[in-house]
Amino acid sequence: MDNFVERLKNHIEHVKKVGTHCTTEETTKQALILPLLDILGFSPYDPTKVLAEFAADFPGVKATERVDYALYCNNQPVMFIEAKSYSADLTNHAPQLSRYFNSSLGVTIGAITNGREWRFFTDLINTNVMDEKPFLTIDFTKSRPEDLIQLAEFRHDNFHAEKLRFFAEENQYIQQFKAVIRKCINEADIDFVRYVAQQASIPRQLNTKFLESIQPFVKQAVQQVISDTVVKGLSSPTIITAQPIEQKQQVDETDSNVVDHVDYIVNPDNDKIITTKDELDLQKIVTELFPDVDLVAKDTESYFSMLYQGKNNRWLFRYDVNRKRPTIHFNIPIDQIKRSELDRAGLEVQANGSIFLDKPEYIYRAVGILRDSLEYCMNDENFKRSSS
User: Residues in domain Restriction endonuclease type I HsdR N-terminal (predicted)?
Assistant: First the structure.
């Protein structure tokens, strides 16, 4: 990741330095767009990853229209890119990109760029119909560190359709929430003032006249809290440690500046049950995918599993890291359709239905099957005892 971020930083400086010299679309492609694709692992010199002037049988699209770039993973197009010159305004060009996107079922991401600004789209509102608004916009002339980290989601070795949809949805919500919070902070409207006064248990009748009288005080309090938070953040550096759980217990729990990254957890009742970092990571991913579902992790000497409502017979999967290659086994049959789905996602299925899961994050490639497994566990009919 450090090397990736460093290459992005160098690219940003490159964009700032030569961008204004890219007066044509072709120059912008060669000088600004293709170098970024290469950083993302989509080598422009590898036709199995990048195809220029991509043409397909798009209904409603003129025969002369072509997608500037189609990016490929596992021999399937996954992302379309529409390129414009450096000085172009991107706003009026999104409909052209949407025509390509809407006509190709395998593509999950569309992007339009002038080499300086990148706008990424997907289909959160209607499946296979590109959203009107981008879920992520990055301007290299106004970039922030968090923007660089977000671009890692689009790397060739990390490109998973379901994962990107969750990322897009999460990013969309965050942007909407930030807009509301920013408005509350800047304006401190009456509803926000009422909420603050209620939470502060002000012993007064909260009528409009009183709320308007304390509105300036609330705005001042908000500004002071933000200022105090910034100052505290600058004066309190975070120390990152990576310690086994036994060492972690020796750290003074009152030291709020220490953040622990646990490598494994040893079961206090059975030291043969060791929950590894990969198992912890898998648990984190699954609980984030289904935040409103009651899921409980259970580790044994043989495998790690996630249980619906903590019931032993309602396990979504069993994850075994005690092999040269970790495997995951779902509680539902892997039929030919699911095998084809897993194969397209780059996952290898064994004869017994177990799936090689070399990295915890590969579970994103099987989100559909994971969801089917959860639905099976949630259906009480599947666990009723048959009457004899």
Answer: 53-124
Give the C-alpha separation, 97 to 76, whole Å: 18
**pLDDT of 245 strictly over 50:** no
Phi, psi of 134 (to 5 degrees): -70, 150
What is the enclosing helix (H) or strand (E) of 121?
strand 117-121
- DSSP-H helix ranges across the chain: 2-18, 25-28, 34-39, 94-102, 145-151, 161-187, 190-199, 208-235, 245-248, 277-289, 336-344, 367-378
Cα–Cα distance for residue pair 161/74, rounded to 1 Å: 12
- Region 102-117: mean pLDDT is 84
The larger pLDDT score, comparing residue 198 to residue 95, is at: 198
What is the rounded distance in angstroms from the CA atom of residue 287 to the CA atom of residue 362?
Answer: 15
Per-residue DSSP letter, 207: -
Distance CA(278)–CA(299), nearest Å, equals: 12
Write out the H or E segment, with its range, that includes residue 110: strand 109-113
Q: Please give the C-alpha separations between residue 83 and each of 69, 70, 86, 217, 383, in angstroms, as whole numbers.
A: 8, 11, 9, 49, 54
CB contact at 8 A, 357 and 326: yes
Distance CA 212, CA 209 (A): 5
Residues 292-351 have pLDDT tens digits of 899 999 999 889 999 999 999 999 999 998 778 899 999 999 998 888 888 888 899 998
Q: In b/e form, how buried is each residue of 241-255, taking b as 16+ CB within 10 angstroms?
A: eeeeeeebeeeeeee
pTM of the model: 0.53
H/E stretch holding 139 reads strand 136-139
Of 61, 76, 66, 10, give the one whose Cα is nearest residue 38: 10
CA distance 334 to 344: 14
Whether the CB-CB separation of 108 and 123 falls below 8 Å is answered with yes
d(CA 273, CA 297): 13
Residues 74, 178: Cα–Cα separation, whole Å: 36
Q: Position of tokens 């408005």?
A: 183
Q: What percent of the chain has pLDDT over 70?
A: 84
Residues 10 and 47: their CA atoms lie apart, in Å, by 25
What is the total residue count of the chain? Answer: 388
